[in-house]
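Following up on my earlier thread - several people asked me to post the actual chain instead of describing it. Fair enough. Here it is, all 505 residues.
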Amino acid sequence: MAKDQKKQPRPKAETPKGFRDYFGADVTERKAMLDRIAEIYHRHGFDPLETSAVETVEALGKFLPDVDRPNAGVFAWQEEAVPGGGSGDWLALRYDLTAPLARVAAQFRNDLPSPYRRYAMGPVWRNEKPGPGRFRQFYQCDADTVGSASVAADAEICAMLADALEAVGIARGDYIVRINNRKVLNGVLEAAEVRAEQAEDVLRQIDKFDKVGRDGVLALLTTGRKDDSGAMIEGVGLSEAQAQPVLAFLTSKGADNAATLGNLRLAVGASAVGAEGVEELAQIADMLAAMGVAEDRAVIDPSIVRGLGYYTGPVFEAELTFEILDEKGRKRQFGSVAGGGRYDGLVERFTGQKVPATGASIGVDRLLAALRAKGLAGAEAQGPVVVTVMDRDRMADYQAMASELRAAGIRAEVYLGNPKNFGNQLKYADKRGAPVAIIQGADEAARGVVQVKDLVLGAKIAGIASLEEWKSNPTQVEISRSELVRGVLQILHNIQHVSKPMAKL
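Reply from S.P.:
Thanks for posting it. Predicted structure:
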């Protein structure tokens, strides 16, 4: 190496900003949760679909307001145009699971059944500024029906959301699926004589209803209001008379669905599109009731306005209603974990023909966080049974033990580190969360026995037991080699069912 050639610096061992690593328990818990959700979707007749993580930027479409910067909002790159190779297209990592579905529905429209019912689960990526709890890579779980204009498809998605939440452990009463309709809001805007160029501003302001209340929204719709810092927020410029139908819409939630629907009919006035939206909500309410989904699980709620600009009909949001403590110890509700609605215009981008579609997306990481907050996930995962190595020349015997345990459905491994220090082997077993350690030295092998050590019981006794309890609850027993599987199964069974005080063990 030349003297003037600088030594290359070592790369930093750190996760890129906005990304994270998922270790054993995280992956296991997520898979278990998604498996339960998939079972619900499968039971409703939906098929799994896995699409490419990479799409053309043209197909994704959503994050391309700036032609000069096609990677705005997404992680994108231009493929080199090579004869017989790259096309020169801009490619990007998918930002959600809906845009790829629209491409698939258009590309394979002659091969897929219509309607096409699919669910998808996997990571998505967004090129956005990261922050606390806001990552550039996260998981989504979607279910969609493409090709059905019937609101029965929307009702089914809402019922599935409720079933999925209960399947993963969220108790009835701890969640609610709220349902609204973009057509109703369009009718309200029509009744309020809101100009087309004002519509998006109105949508943004009424989305703040939960935060600022009726009077706050009224101010934002009209002359403006001061925020908490004292800065003035400019209003949309509606008159108070124009704002009244909007406020009537936002405050139309009644004691039950029938009352809410009656209030909405008044809010939309003579608007035909508004009346159509109210009738669709009435149909959804009837169908949910027929499916056994009561109003304590799914309810018509006009306050759901988030994302209405994207949707063309019914919209829905699954909210967790139980309280948790924030980082400052304050009580707050957990909030939304899923949302969706009807998006009839998405597939049309590809085909030029209107293709009705509806679906919902579950925020996987957020739902998993909710399960942990409820104590339904996050428990320390049980590791494998560890077969220790007392004699490195007998490694085949130890591997045979592990194989027998695996054949019986028991997770097991042989210690493959340096066996010289036996204490380090037990430390390894503790770090792995092993419930049991298997020990067989030359003496035990000659007598045809093994030592089976209950590491869970040992940890409990070491922490709180008296000498007498220690003696009466041996943590290590000697059994016949031929009884290895039965002995380990017995200990694992005891571990799973131990909930008694130490004195009664």
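Residues 63-67, 499-505 have pLDDT under 50 and may be disordered. That should answer part of your original question.
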